[in-house]
Amino acid sequence: MSNRTFTMIKPDAMKNGHAGAILDRIIKEGFRIVALKQTKLSAEKAGEFYAVHKERPFYGELVSFMSSGIIIAAILEKENAVASFRKLIGATNPAQAEEGTIRKLFATSLGENAVHGSDSDENAAIEGSFFFSGLEQF
Ligand code: CMP
């Protein structure tokens, strides 16, 4: 079990002014910020990041949304990070997310769901390295 995960604060949450509150919550829940940057994905880069979803009906919408505005990308560290962070953010669909979770509090819809959280240790490492060089992951 790895102690790191990867997250993005998505364009909806950035535009709605929730970035500060989300980062504050992440830190208060005991995650250490290993690396963090604000950036904007091109459609090409967003397509590459979400390549696993290429065959899904929502792929085009997902790519266009994720390249529609500024995001924050970060690598986080905590014991059992992947599972612990997924519990903190709640279900993919905010309508089904538990009370108090980040998506329940800040997400707009299933597609515009405020934050990303890696779904496995393997993907956490791949996704973190998509945004950060080895030198930045200390
Ligand atoms: P995330 O877990 O960050 O990565 C895949 C994303 O696809 C997911 O968040 C949702 O934002 C999005 N997604 C999943 N299912 C749907 C859907 N049915 N329609 C639109 N977007 C979706």
Automatic annotation (TrEMBL):
List of residues binding ATP? 10, 58, 86, 92, 103, 113
Q: What Pfam families does the entry give?
A: NDK (PF00334)
Q: Which PROSITE patterns match?
A: NDPK_LIKE (PS51374)
**Localisation per UniProt entry:** Cytoplasm
Query: Which InterPro entries does the UniProt record give?
Result: NDK-like_dom, NDK-like_dom_sf, Nucleoside_diP_kinase
Q: Does the keyword ATP-binding apply?
A: yes
* Source superkingdom: Bacteria
Read off the SUPFAM superfamilies from this record. Answer: Nucleoside diphosphate kinase, NDK (SSF54919)
Q: What GO MF terms are annotated? A: ATP binding; metal ion binding; nucleoside diphosphate kinase activity
Pull one GO CC term from this UniProt entry.
Answer: cytoplasm
Q: Name one GO biological process term.
A: GTP biosynthetic process
Positions of the catalytic residues: 116 (pros-phosphohistidine intermediate)
Which cofactors, if any, are listed as required?
Mg(2+)
According to its UniProt record, where is this protein mainly located? cytoplasm
Documented EC number(s) = 2.7.4.6
What is annotated about its quaternary structure and interactions?
A: Homotetramer.
* NCBIfam families in the cross-refs: PRK00668.1, PRK14545.1
For this chain, the family text in UniProt reads: Belongs to the NDK family.
Question: What does the function comment of this entry state?
Answer: Major role in the synthesis of nucleoside triphosphates other than ATP. The ATP gamma phosphate is transferred to the NDP beta phosphate via a ping-pong mechanism, using a phosphorylated active-site intermediate.
Protein known as: Nucleoside diphosphate kinase
Q: Organism, per UniProt? A: Paraflavitalea soli
- Write the gene name: ndk
